[in-house]
Amino acid sequence: MSAFPVHPDGVDADWLNDSLEGTEWLAEGPVESVSWEAIGTGQVGDSVRFHLTHAGGAKSTLAAKFPAADHASRSTAALLQLYTKEVRFYADIAPQLAVRVPEALVAEVDEEGSEFILLFEDLGPARGGNQIAGCTIEDARAAIRQAAAIHAPSWHNSAILTADWLQRSEAIDAQVRTLYPQAQAVFAERYADMLEPEYMALCDALAAHPQLFNHAEGASPQCVVHGDFRLDNFLFDVKGGAEAIAVLDWQTVTAGKAMTDIGYFLGCGIGDDLRRAHEEELLALYLEEMAARGVALSREDIWTDYRLGALHGVTTAVFSAAFVERTPRGDANFLSMARGACALALHHDSLSALKETA
Questions:
Q1: Which residues on neighbouring strands pair with residue 236, listed in sequence order?
Q2: Which of 3, 43, 85, 327 is least surrounded by CB atoms within 10 angstroms?
């Protein structure tokens, strides 16, 4: 049994008072009672909002994240060490970056990486990003600025990037290479009549190129990479509009190339129509934001990695669809991701870029 709650029912007033003792979060007095409601749309972790009543009648809220109730999702998270990564991100790295994330008040994970708890400040009221509905260009610009706020402070920063837990693991990469053909088979069977034939053909072709999952032995990463930088993982109009955006869900954080996030976001993140209309503007904005934070890059510097970043969106949609809990919203979500990522990859011939790097 874990030494911390791994389900919202395990969080009671005594645990909260012990965990938050001496902090501003008990300024209204000790917690006397607590209730919770589910929030968010995540499939690899379950998020909730706690409603607290303090001594004297004052009320407040906190947010929290726990292991997914679904066994398949939890197994995938343990295999890929997703829970460990997210907890360590909030505990070790978040304070060193400029990106807006919720403040973590409790961050615990067990040794196996299968049980965890994250207790956060509540950023509501806020508008949750919606992968399926898409976003405005203003939302996309806000996200691009946050990408630079992740990448620039960690750019070739060895104090951050050398953390053992942040590295890509050859063992995990090998497992993903082994499992990916199975994932593609599931994806193809499930969505054969829903995904456009040219997009499914690209998914099939990509499954024949396992080098996408090769561990880059000896390669020097550029920066911290979110790894799942898309609308469902953003909150907009945070705290009733006081702040533009916050970035959530750091389970796939790693040390890698910046364009993994940017190619992913402009592909599976915002959809093909918005991307085609504003691609050049958003890439230029990213370069401007990086330069303002002290990292000078040209379009030529990023172009090949940007094309490859689109493929990360394809593989994430395929792999996730096969190995997390299946839901109607999940199906719509993975199809949205695949369409946008495949459209960008075909537009810029990303598969050729992958073959050139082999």
A1: 127, 245
A2: 3
